[in-house]
Amino acid sequence: MVQLPPEIYSAIVSYASTRDLLALSRTSKAFQRAAEPKIYECMILRDAESTFLGCHAILARNAFRGPYVRRIFIYQDARRATARNNLSAAPPQFWLVIQHALTKTENLETFCIHDPTISHSWILNHTDFKFQLREATLRLPWDSNTVSFLQTQRKLLILSVADARDDGPLFPLPPGALPMLEVFSGPALVAAELLGSPLKRVQMTTDEETAPLVPTIVADLGKIMKTLRTLSILGLPEEFVLETVHLVATSVLASQLRYLGLLRLPMMREWDLLHRSLMKLSVLVMLEVEVTQWDPAPNEGLQRMILHEFRVFCPSLQQVVFWHSLHRFHWYSRDGQWHCLHTAGRHPANDNQWRIV
């Protein structure tokens, strides 16, 4: 077979899909050398078997493929789960292989791991990690291993973490940690540990135990978080909503917040404080509210009336979203007219509008 210049192989590879890259890499060693950097650039490992094989591929032949890897996603696809092919049943040796592979990925920028058991944070405890992440999604416990690992990630921009376990203390981040962090999604108590980061977008999750602390956390954010542009709070009970919105409106956030949600909207007779708060949110563009608890559910006519009332007090509003159970009614203004886009089968926790406004 006639050998072509390496530039030709690279040019061909640059136009190939992922499936074609795998086929090309098997045709010749020249194509394999050209294709492998793209094949291993993004590794999506959907179950225990693919994770084990993928990590061994990184480690093979003195881990020469390690520098190719920039993004790794490890999770359990429910459609692939069997008794033997399941991350939740994987032995400690399996997680050691993941840890070892990570020590070879010096150019890793995005790391997403969903541990079904939320118990293997120890894989982050290794002194040979050379990468500096830009984005991390960690379904791992917020413990000393996770905190120690995050202290080393000085370039991290986006962080999403799972709920911390309730059987131990919350491990604090030291001052100066995560100096570039702009986006956070996770438990409210963890958000309280990030007041020293230049956050621009925050989504906090709450439960019955942490909900009473949310007003205090928001008050702290409002004192020092001059960079914050979007604030989403999931699961906040109705009795804390008006107080929380009032704290936002009477803080430095009032003149900079562009998105606020997801508010469990109380019945209309209790809106005086909400109206006064909306008047102070001078640049608010989008508001998301939950009306699942309303009986009967507000139809689109009542929704339109409510959004026009909000606009009286907050003229900057351009989008209002009503959530009723898994139904999302997205109202938006175009050419002076309000339009509604209704979608079903969605969940607020999976909606990322707060990240893009």
UniProtKB/TrEMBL annotation:
It holds the Pfam family F-box-like. PROSITE patterns: FBOX. Residues 1-43 form the F-box domain. It comes from the Eukaryota. Transmembrane segments: none annotated. This is F-box domain-containing protein.
